[in-house]
């Protein structure tokens, strides 16, 4: 799913009114009617008090349309105008008049937090104060109002975006933002729903289709894309009947040191489980017995070093190499890594200590093959590109880094983001059970395994991250957050593949069932 920028959304609105020959007021009516339908379907006429807080722009206009429709359908509605500015939008004003014609219970105009009504935990708040038009910090009294929303503990539904969040700038004041239980966003989710510093402002979100011009939606390129099953399915490479293991590449996983051989084993097993034809683990001598006895499918090549790698040499031709897991940063290992890069021409996935060594010796970056994949967690990323002040600056720095070195950078986290030059692909699978030792090693193996099977490095990263998270989501059903460990993610990888082709369950049609004999 495309994630449109604020500018693109405004342009989509404009083009839609032009091409569909409707007014912006009609588009607002259509958009807010979707919100009404959403609520009506769930509430079924329930008389829960609904408090709708409207700003004076188009987000407020949406709130007024919603309020009018709820009133017409007999809901228990109270409407407030958060009067934060003298400049009202045209469609706000039109809908302000319309609601006055609909009910005698006119909106209450709030000019300070003084007039804040009593709201009980079982009530519902609709937040239509600011939308994507926020361009400066809200006034203190408006921030106070948002704090009162939170203190009321009422279910809070935000329209389009939690008020107080910018679409393209970091948070300035944590207290000047609405904490939404749910956000109904028009046409496109907003990037801020997925970034670590701002995701917390809405627990859940959903996109409502408001009929923006189809051509505009399909033809407009976005910098950001959300990756779910729909996006990865076209990447999948089916297998031919007469395929043999030579068709699926030979993965080499290089890493490990005394006490950290397991990392190589996890990455090697996941490379094989992701579909690679052959896997060789390259490790220091101390790991030979453990890998050979517990993982019979792997071939093993030992370094001359006993406890750490000191001279990388092998006589195979790997299709893809994953390097760095559990490798350590002993002086000999750093020298071996440096020498390896000089001679290497295979596609690379670099993780863990390979990234830490690159961070220490940035001149080595120019030795990486084009479109190598690096998979840092936040600490490793910071060592590599330096500190950032907020999520937006982090993305800018990573984009610049990717461009400068022609690298695919995976920013790992709750929503891992694959960055290649200007483009960002946000993953939607995965869960907090993955915050466990070795889950990153498994990912390294999967991505390397996919490259070995002929996936382009960018596709392998996007698809690999998706499969890794999906596999953990499936494993979660058996193990729960606490007991999920990295090995489980490998065991359910097959289910993650099969899930790609699962059809949604058909809905049961009660009336068509045969009566029992
Ligand atoms: N396709 C779609 O997505 C559709 C979207 N629609 C809806 O439109 C919403 C965007 O509406 P919007 O442009 O009128 O902006 P909104 O957020 O209501 O702000 C209002 C104005 O407030 C001002 N202002 C800004 N910051 C301020 C501050 N701190 N303190 C005081 N004032 C401040 C600023 O004006 P300024 O004062 O800068 O001139 C701003 O313009 C969008 O989120 C969605 O809900 C649908 O209706 C139709 C289809
Ligand atoms: N809360 C979370 N939600 C989703 N995925 C997560 C979460 N926490 C961690 N992960 C994923 O788990 C993996 C952890 O990788 P990493 O930190 O390198 O672990 P390790 O070094 O132990 O192998 C990453 O792919 C990350 O995206
Ligand atoms: K809002």
Automatic annotation (TrEMBL):
It catalyses: (6R)-NADHX = (6S)-NADHX; (6S)-NADHX + ADP = AMP + phosphate + NADH + H(+); (6R)-NADPHX = (6S)-NADPHX; (6S)-NADPHX + ADP = AMP + phosphate + NADPH + H(+). Residues 228-500 form the YjeF C-terminal domain. One of its GO terms (molecular function) is metal ion binding. Binds 1 potassium ion per subunit. K(+) binds at residues 59, 127, 163. Pfam families: Carb_kinase, YjeF_N. Its EC number is 4.2.1.136, 5.1.99.6. Keywords: ATP-binding, Isomerase, Lyase, Metal-binding, Multifunctional enzyme, NAD, NADP, Nucleotide-binding, Potassium. Homotetramer. In the N-terminal section; belongs to the NnrE/AIBP family. This is Bifunctional NAD(P)H-hydrate repair enzyme. It comes from Winogradskyella aurantia.
């Amino acid at each position: 799913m495309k994630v449109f920028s604020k500018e693109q959304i405004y342009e989509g609105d404009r083009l839609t009114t032009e091409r569909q020959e409707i007014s912006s007021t009609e588009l607002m009516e259509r958009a807010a009617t979707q919100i009404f339908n959403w609520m009506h379907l769930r509430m079924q006429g329930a008389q829960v008090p609904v408090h709708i807080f409207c700003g004076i722009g188009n987000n407020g206009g949406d709130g007024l349309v919603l309020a009018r429709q709820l009133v017409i359908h007999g809901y228990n509605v109270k409407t407030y105008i958060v009067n934060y500015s003298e400049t009202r939008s045209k469609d706000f004003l039109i809908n302000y008049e319309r609601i006055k014609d609909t009910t005698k219970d006119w909106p209450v105009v709030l000019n300070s937090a003084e007039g804040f009504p009593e709201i009980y935990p079982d009530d519902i708040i609709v937040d239509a104060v600011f939308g994507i038009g926020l361009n400066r910090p809200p006034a203190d009294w408006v921030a106070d109002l948002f704090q009162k929303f939170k203190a009321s503990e009422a279910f809070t539904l935000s329209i389009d975006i939690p008020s107080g969040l910018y679409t393209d700038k970091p948070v300035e004041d944590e207290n000047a933002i609405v904490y939404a239980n749910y956000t109904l966003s028009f046409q496109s989710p907003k990037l801020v729903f997925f970034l670590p510093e701002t995701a917390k402002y809405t627990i859940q979100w959903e996109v409502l289709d408001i009929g923006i011009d189809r051509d505009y939606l399909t033809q407009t390129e976005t910098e950001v894309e959300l990756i779910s099953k729909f996006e990865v399915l076209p990447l999948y490479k089916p297998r031919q009947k007469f395929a043999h293991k030579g068709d699926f590449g030979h993965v080499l996983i290089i890493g490990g040191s005394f006490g950290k051989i397991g990392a190589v084993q996890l990455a090697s097993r996941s490379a094989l489980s992701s579909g690679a034809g052959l896997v060789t683990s390259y490790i220091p001598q101390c790991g030979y017995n453990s890998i050979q006895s517990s993982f019979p499918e792997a071939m093993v090549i030992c370094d001359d070093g006993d406890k750490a790698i000191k001279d990388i040499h092998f006589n195979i031709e790997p299709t893809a190499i994953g390097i760095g897991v559990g490798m350590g940063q002993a002086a000999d290992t750093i020298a071996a890594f440096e020498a390896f890069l000089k001679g290497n021409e295979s596609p690379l996935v670099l993780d863990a200590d390979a990234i830490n060594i690159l961070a220490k010796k940035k001149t080595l970056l120019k030795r990486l093959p084009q479109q190598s994949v690096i998979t840092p967690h936040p600490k490793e990323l910071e060592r590599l590109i330096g500190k950032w002040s907020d999520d937006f600056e982090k993305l800018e720095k990573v984009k610049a880094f990717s461009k400068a070195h022609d690298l695919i950078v995976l920013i790992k986290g709750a929503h891992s983001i694959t960055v290649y030059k200007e483009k960002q692909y946000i993953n939607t699978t995965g869960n907090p059970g993955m915050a466990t030792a070795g889950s990153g090693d498994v990912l390294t193996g999967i991505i390397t395994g996919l490259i070995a099977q002929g996936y382009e490095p960018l596709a392998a990263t996007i698809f690999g991250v998706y499969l890794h998270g999906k596999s953990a989501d499936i494993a979660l059903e058996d193990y729960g957050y606490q007991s999920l460990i990295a090995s489980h993610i490998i065991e359910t990888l097959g289910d993650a593949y099969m899930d790609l082709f699962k059809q949604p369950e058909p809905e049961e049609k009660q009336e068509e069932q045969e009566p029992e004999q």
